[in-house]
Write a structure and sequence with these properties.
three-stranded mixed beta sheet; 236 residues; Aspartate Aminotransferase, domain 1; elongated; 7 helices; Aspartate Aminotransferase, domain 2
């Protein structure tokens, strides 16, 4: 089993970096990640046999240093030298990236904490979050709007937000792969909305996002309170 710790790069669980509990851990360096090489990623292990095996498979599984002889199917899955150089430079900036993410998250939490129906991200007492994304939960019944409607309202103000990824048990491509429902994942997917949190986000830009969120949520709640009761209390 290979642990994917990409989105927790820089995060700690009980003082230990994520990925330390696995024999094999992978990190993606795609363009939207905390640090990037433009594409590709990295596999880490403290097992020398697994490391040797990984290097073998990622260099076309060549069994002869000169002839093109392959006893197994291999791949050309290595980063280029340019990508590796970019990754090294990005890694040196990782502490600054993490500090920026935490600063942005703290400001969002303080600004959104008192808004009815909005649940800011929480950090467990035993964890140190990397805040790769900053995601809020939008309770439609309490705040007068749902996450998708809020997404569209913010888009009208030229503010891009994103829903979370569709859970696999809801994916049409995987409809025959699951034998049970996943109600927590379903609920989080319906309520969640990720707001702008790039490390390059300026204080002024974040203030504009916060003002837009407060404006939309207050307006939607006011409209919801003015609507006459219909007797239908179902939720989508």
């Amino acid at each position: 089993m290979v642990e994917d710790a990409t989105e927790s790069l820089g995060a700690l669980c009980r003082g230990q970096p994520l990925g330390r509990w696995s024999r094999l851990t992978c990190f993606s360096f795609n363009a939207n990640k905390l640090m990037t090489t433009g594409g590709g990623g990295m596999l880490v292990t403290d097992d020398p046999l697994l490391a040797r095996r990984a290097r073998y498979l990622t260099t076309q599984a060549k069994d002869d240093p000169l002839e093109f002889v392959h006893q197994e199917i291999g791949y050309n899955y290595r980063l280029t030298s340019v990508q590796a150089a970019l990754g090294t430079a990005q890694l040196e900036r990782l502490p600054a990236f993490l500090a920026a993410k935490r600063r942005i998250a703290t400001r969002y939490a303080e600004a959104l904490e008192g808004l009815p129906g909005i649940q800011p991200m929480k950090e467990a007492p035993w964890a140190t979050a990397s805040y790769w994304m900053y995601t809020i939960l939008v309770d439609a019944e309490r705040c007068g709007t749902d996450s998708r409607s809020l997404l569209k309202a913010l888009a009208a103000s030229n503010i891009e937000t994103r829903p979370l990824w569709q859970p696999l048990h809801l994916s049409p491509a995987h409809r025959d792969s699951f034998a049970r429902s996943c109600p927590v994942a379903t609920r989080v997917n319906r309520l969640a909305l990720s707001v702008p949190c790039s490390t390059s986000l300026t204080e002024e830009e974040q203030s504009r996002v916060i003002r837009a969120l407060q404006r939309e949520l207050v307006a939607d709640r006011r409209n919801a309170e003015m609507q006459p009761a219909t007797g239908d209390f179902g939720t989508a």
